[in-house]
Specification:
about 250 residues, alpha/beta, five-stranded parallel β-sheet, four-stranded antiparallel β-sheet, 12 strands, about 35% helix, elongated, binds calcium ion
């Protein structure tokens, strides 16, 4: 009997390979650099995606709202509206389409700001189409998960979309980094979170940063959400990390 190397006994040939989708997956690419936009379209089409392109932030936002896409690949530096603004507006409208930011901006603050505004992933240029397609597939597997509109711990409330924090009736002004730190702790309210975990998630995972920076920022946050109100929500757990009291302290 001749040896047939291609067929897996339990799997039909059509299902083999990561590039075959069971349904059409539609991706919107928002990129003002036309040659790059065309190249991304070709690269993702070759990976099995159906791709539309918008060349500025205004069109990008319009299409993302109306087009029923499975995912959006979003540049940051765009004419009309920036990628940050596009993402922020989508999330403010409770549109949870998975967003992958693809940008030449590679600073840790750029990445943190993008993720703070509700993007799901961030890749820097130059990039590999194979990796971009793989990251998109990972996002699609996770799907468009609604984020809770407002996080609450007692009378401490944080709205990730509107980017506001309130203690009771009082508004609290936080910087982007302080906001990201508090949001991360509030999503795990009542649990101990280590400094290393905070450093990894709130700061750039690739940046070599000192754990002391977490202490410094925890102090800043505490002086804004706790001290003026005589409260103790952001608690230090000695030798372990921090805990955001579920009852707001
Ligand atoms: Ca651009």
């Amino acid at each position: 009997m001749p040896y047939r190397r291609c067929e897996h006994p339990e799997r039909p040939a059509a299902a083999v390979g990561p590039l075959r989708h069971t349904r059409t997956v539609r991706v919107l690419v928002v990129e003002d650099e036309r040659r790059l936009a065309s190249a991304v379209r070709r690269g993702l089409t070759a990976e099995g995606f159906v791709v539309d392109v918008a060349h500025d932030g205004v069109d990008g936002l319009h299409l993302a709202r109306e087009g029923g896409y499975d995912a959006v690949v979003l540049d940051l530096m765009l004419p009309g509206l920036s990628g940050y603004q596009v993402c922020e507006r989508l999330r403010a409208e409770r549109n949870w389409v998975p967003v992958l930011i693809l940008s030449a901006k590679d600073g840790e603050y750029d990445q943190a700001d993008g993720l703070d505004l509700g993007a799901d992933d961030y890749m820097t240029k130059p990039f590999s189409y194979v990796v971009l397609a793989a990251r998109l597939r990972a996002l699609l597997r996770r799907g468009a998960r609604p984020r809770p509109a407002v996080l609450a711990a007692g009378d401490l409330r944080l709205d990730p979309a509107a980017r506001t924090v309130r203690r009771g009736e009082a508004g609290v002004e936080l910087t982007a980094r302080e906001f990201a730190l508090l949001e991360y702790l509030m999503r795990r309210a009542g649990q101990v979170v280590s400094k290393a975990e905070l450093l990894e998630h709130v700061w750039d995972p690739d940046a070599v940063a000192d754990l002391n920076v977490v202490e410094v920022y925890a102090g800043y946050v505490r002086r804004k959400i706790d001290t003026p109100f005589g409260r103790n929500a952001l608690q230090t757990v000695r030798g372990a990390g921090y805990r955001l009291a579920a009852d707001g302290g």
